[in-house]
Design a protein that fits this description.
alpha+beta; five-stranded mixed beta sheet; 2 helices; 5 strands
Length: 101
């Protein structure tokens, strides 16, 4: 795959039956730099984010929203639910997430 410098790409690894990791990378010329990732757990009726990270230089650019959107579409038959263990930033993000998905 070829990305132009500055473009972002979201992809997942894992079976989507028990858990999967979603990555966000940014093209920096011929090199791709990981700028964010999240681990999602798949339950019978829901999916839940166990952990999410976006590099500080890339925050407030829609990276986490894109990661959550990807996870939601990848498991479209399951409801995306919030974790019970969230940081203050996570709580603020989740509060507005429904509007962005």
């Amino acid at each position: 795959m070829s990305l132009h410098k500055g473009q972002y790409f979201i992809f997942a690894m894992g079976d989507r039956k028990s858990n999967f990791q979603v990555y966000a990378v940014k093209a920096e010329g011929p090199v791709w730099t990981e700028v964010g990732s999240a681990l999602f757990w798949v339950m019978p009726k829901t999916i839940k984010c166990s952990s999410v990270f976006v590099d500080e230089k890339h925050r407030r650019q829609g990276i986490a929203t894109a990661i959550y959107r990807y996870a939601s579409l990848a498991c479209h038959t399951k409801k995306l639910v919030p974790s019970h263990n969230q940081t203050p930033m996570g709580k603020a993000f989740w509060k507005d997430l429904r509007e962005r998905l």
